[in-house]
Amino acid sequence: MASAVSTLLVLVLLAGALLKARDRDASAIALSTFGLAGARVRRGAVHALIATELAFASALAAGFFWAAPATAALFLAFAAITAAALLSGRSGRPCACFSGRSRLGAWTPLRALALAATAAALASGRLPVAASHYDRLLTAALCVSLATSAALAAALMALAREVGVLRLDMTTRGALEIAGEGPALGADHEWATAMPVGRRALLRLAIFSSEGCPMCRQVAPAVAHVAADPLVAVQVFDEVADEHVWAQAGVPGSPYAVAFNRDGVALAKGTFNSLSQLESILAGARAREGGGLSLAA
Questions:
Q1: With CB atoms 3.0 to 4.6 Å apart as the test, which of 115, 180, 237, 275 could cross-link to 168 if both were Cys?
Q2: Cα separation of 160 and 151, whole Å?
Q3: pTM
Q4: Distance between CA atoms of residues 87 and 155, nearest Å
């Protein structure tokens, strides 16, 4: 049991360190969630985290007496920091736990607490120890095999998700933008400024949907895919629940999308029925924002 627990902790620490090292820039940016200001400070913190996790993993593998309690303290610190960030309303932001793609959620501090408890159990010396060196090696090999199988399963799920996204993209590109429909481009829209937006978001994206619209259900994965981008603040407006917004926007039907800058100026709009068409609205908004909007409809 002790060998299995030690191997598990080593694998977790190695995974965290290697994933951060592979994507150091994104991991450094993610540390801003915890109040670290300045690119140089965040880069230094990422390098320190990588070095610490690698050192603790090596110490656990070597069987140093201090490795288990130090690992427990490290994970306990992670739990406290992530819990404080959650209480500050930063849920959903990058946390750099396993690279910059990790997101802060209710499970994050609980996971760290579970790992801290596991390391504390190992440090207590009460876990059964394999009788021979061969048994310890066999246990470690079994743990590595199980971890590899789990990683392959995760990779397969990620591949299936990407295939699904590609299927959403297999349609004619370009959303249908009609000048006389929807919000006027180049104009301020007060209702758009009420949309919640994160500090990193560059664009606001309003999605107009209807409960009885089959196409809206079909493009829901595309909307969720775009909403996962921290640079885009997405909000869905239902035809019934948000009737007043529909009236102010003057949209012709659903699904319909309007992209705004942070100040609530409409940059692009249109009816869409695929991920590529939704992304074309964002691309048009970025192009017009960068080159200066010359449309006024």
A1: 275
A2: 14
A3: 0.50
A4: 32
- Closest C-alpha among 177, 149, 245, 170 to residue 206: 245
- Note the pLDDT tens digit of each residue in 83-114: 999 998 888 888 888 887 788 888 999 999 99
> Where exactly does CATH 3.40.30.10 map onto the chain?
190-291
Residue for token pair 């500050």: 88
**Per-residue pLDDT at 137:** 63
Choose among 28, 26, 27: nearest CA to 43: 28
Residue type, 158: A
Please write the tens of the pLDDT for every residue from 39-74: 788 889 989 999 999 999 888 887 788 989 999 999
- Contacts of residue 178, Cβ cutoff 8 Å, sequence gap at least 6: 252, 270
Q: What CATH number does the domain located at 190-291 have?
A: 3.40.30.10
Q: How far is CA 109 from CA 55, 56, 78, 79, 190, in A?
A: 22, 20, 7, 4, 38
